[in-house]
Amino acid sequence: MPGPGYRTVVPELPDGTVWERLVALYREVAATVAAVEGTPVVLSGDCTVALGTLAGVQRRGIDPAVVWFDAHGDVHTLESSTSGYIGGMSLRLALGVHADLMAEPLGLRPVAAERTVLVDARDLDPGEREYLSTAPVRHCGVDTITLPDGPVLLHIDVDVITAEEVPGLLHPVTGGPTRDAVLDAVRRVIATGRVVALDIACPWNPGEYPERADLLATLTGLLDTGAVAAAHDR
Known about the structure:
Layout: E1 8-9, H1 18-35, E2 41-44, H2 50-59, E3 65-72, H3 90-94, H4 103-106, E4 116-123, H5 126-134, E5 138-140, E6 152-157, H6 179-191, E7 195-201, H7 210-220, E8 228-230
Parallel strand pairs: 1-8, 2-7, 2-8, 3-4, 3-6, 4-5, 6-7
Helix pairs in contact: 1-2
């Protein structure tokens, strides 16, 4: 888990709705990201923390495109979700859905769908498939990534790797790309020199697994110019 150089973000959260508590946390993440010298690396246990990372990068005067590695689409809305799980709305919130609940109070400028790349997302619900069938979001595999122009916020949910290689995931999905294939794709994106923040979500159950420790060490070592660890608490 976070080592030297990482700062853990654990703000006092207000009483209130889950949305108000999330906004309070992500404001603190955004402030920390904005203050990092160099390229921030954010670790968390939930994809929605990427909203704080995005807002923090925007506070630095940068308007990045988003490249989102995930086994899931994360493009649900409150209306399309059958579970109400906010993590399944993470990317769609970054694109501006339910702006009154997240983007506006957080001070986040929604990213245009045509400047968004969704990588893998092999496990999609019907509502997500319907949205992606018409939205200008680029949906591709790890071997066919085409980046939008300009700076990039790179988000990696570790469950994009096939579940057989990452033990203890909260939402495991088999049949996906291997660890090596994902890391090769991530390295190609970083090699463009356009990544302005690396956001890594680790939605897994507690436990000590050498495979997970090695994966995190490899991912966090890809960008070594600044770091912040984000604690997720609703």
